Amino acid sequence: MRLLYTLLWGPHVPALILLFGAFCTVRGRLPQLGAFRAMPAALSGDGKAGGLSALSALSASLAGSLGVGNILGVAAALTAGGAGAMFWMWLSAFFGMATVYAESFLAARYRSADAPGAIGYVRRALGKVPAGVYAAGCVLSALGMGTMAQTGAVSAALGRFAVPGWVSGALTALLLVFCVAGGLSGAVRVTEKLVPFMAALFLLAAGAVLFLRAERIPAAFAAIFREAFTLRAGAGGAVGIWTALTVGVSRGVFTNEAGLGSGTFALSEIRGKTPAQIGAVGVLQVFLDTIVLCTVTALCLLVSPTPGDGAERTLSAFAAVLGPLGETAVSVSAALFAFATCVAWSVYGMEALRFFPAFCGRVGRAVYVAFAALSCFLGCVLPFSGILTLCDAMNGVMALPNLAAVFRLSGEVFPLFSRKRKQIAKKE
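Above: the chain's sequence. Below: its structure in token form.
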């Protein structure tokens, strides 16, 4: 198992994702900035029949990425890599915006009924077998990162209120079955109501912490930059920087999913928009996920330092400033974030099943939903650290063919010559 993890998600894979984002940023001449200029047009309108509006698709993609990684995962990253891990999460997000732009652009162009989302462009670029590997990886990731890792963190958070793990798992599993029965359209009806509420609840609690500890915010930013670059003791310092880098990038991918192509299952269903505009919506998803939510979480943890890791550290940090009310707000937020991710990723896995005709029928979908519900339950009773290791490995199964496909088709997204750029713009 350890060898498989190293091959699929050793330090080389997060580094590859970071370098690939840099490649897209340079070749696309900072497409992140152009995407922000295109966002007003990209987000306007109600969408066309047979598809999703941009805002609905954005809520679904945010539901998939705004999981426990934004709250509890940030604490794990800061514990393992120090405050400097946050800097590398920022850098990962900045370059990740360019990657997600390319993924969303290509998914909008090459999606089909039997190859939704990223599967369409992976098949176009690499062939049917790599597309099948990617689709299988998506199904496994949906059962791992999308459900198991999420409910495991919820169980840890609710455990502080004497809620047994099996109770948390059973309730989440039952709610999941109810919400995903209608497929992507049914899930969107849940996420477009849930995402604004849960984000507002968490930001309200975090805003109160930062307001009451405002004098410590400059020192928190200073620690992020200092610990990201400072060589404290020769080789030991270099190892510390490498740890901060790999942990920061790994947790950054865990939260914003840049390099995995997962958000394309929702974004490629937008109708009435050009691929470039759909790419801009993908950029906004990464910005809100990591630059906004993860930064707010990290600052709260740094201005209110407490011992522990993951759920314990996060809950204690808010309780130290806001008392039981802060602890309750974060616990509820973590539970809602996790459930939204379970819903979105379960639908991503269901969409990926379309690539396998033998499993995409009514019986196959029912079996898949049953496994997703079981994963929710198991996530509440298995060790959280072991679950994260498994999830990272499954991320690698998606990331490697996805990055290869985007690289091969990158000339369609980022033409090297201005004349070609104008020709593509006219076609859109």
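The chain has one domain: 32-423.
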